[in-house]
Design a protein that fits this description.
It comes from Marasmius oreades (fairy-ring Marasmius). This protein has 205 residues and is of the alpha+beta class. It is built from three helices and nine strands; from the N terminus they run E-H-E-E-E-E-E-E-E-E-H-H. It is globular.
Length: 205
């Protein structure tokens, strides 16, 4: 998920830079999806607290230059809550400004979905799923963790899955950016892992 302070919500369609192309209407087949997953040596609560703190994303998330939370529901009950966040994605020669609806399920998931299309994207969503490892199966098989990890420490190991889905407004953008975006999911998870190490200290896998 990407974010910014620079563009007001009333000027979302003015936040494109460098050049533009006539829009087209992509089909469901044009939606590009990437996913990355990794087991990290932190509890689900620790990981959720980092990924749900969207106001700090500019400090560590690639292509993110700032963040402004426009509104937020009650976060004190421990129940799912939502935020409306003004976001900007800056990458290659593009800069996109838009508003996303962020839905947080404490200690389980954080999902951000753009509320409307932008000059560059017709749709854009990111989803973080967080699962403690003892009950995890990946593609029907138990997820293996290093044999050096004791049974007691297994409860402090968590599977993080990051899913990115988007559709470009123009086929030229889609063609020139496909290779670039294929690396975004991995970069996001690596940045997230590095941030956790900064906040909680480096842990042994």
């Amino acid at each position: 998920m990407w974010a910014s302070l620079r563009c007001p919500a009333t000027a979302l369609r003015l936040c494109r830079t460098f050049f533009s192309f006539p829009p087209f209407s992509p089909s469901q087949a044009d939606v590009q999806k990437y996913s990355e997953r990794k087991v990290l040596p932190y509890t689900a609560r620790q990981l959720f607290d980092v990924v749900a703190n969207v106001s700090l994303y500019p400090k560590f998330i690639p292509f993110c230059t700032g963040c402004r939370v426009l509104s937020s529901s009650d976060q004190a009950s421990g129940r799912p809550y939502s935020m409306e966040v003004e976001l900007t994605a800056g990458f290659l020669s593009f800069e996109e400004c838009y508003v996303s609806e962020v839905t947080c399920v404490p200690f389980r998931s954080v999902q951000a979905i753009a509320k409307s299309s932008t000059p560059l994207f017709t749709s854009l969503s990111t989803t973080w799923n967080i699962q403690p490892t003892p009950s995890i199966h990946v593609e029907g098989n138990p997820l293996r963790v290093s044999q050096s990890v004791s049974e007691e420490s297994m409860s402090n190991h968590t599977l993080v899955t990051f899913d990115l889905a988007y559709a470009f407004s123009n086929p030229v953008h889609a063609a020139v950016s496909s290779a670039f975006f294929s690396q975004v999911s991995k970069q996001m998870v690596n940045a997230f892992e590095k941030r956790c190490a900064e906040v909680y200290g480096s842990q042994k896998q």
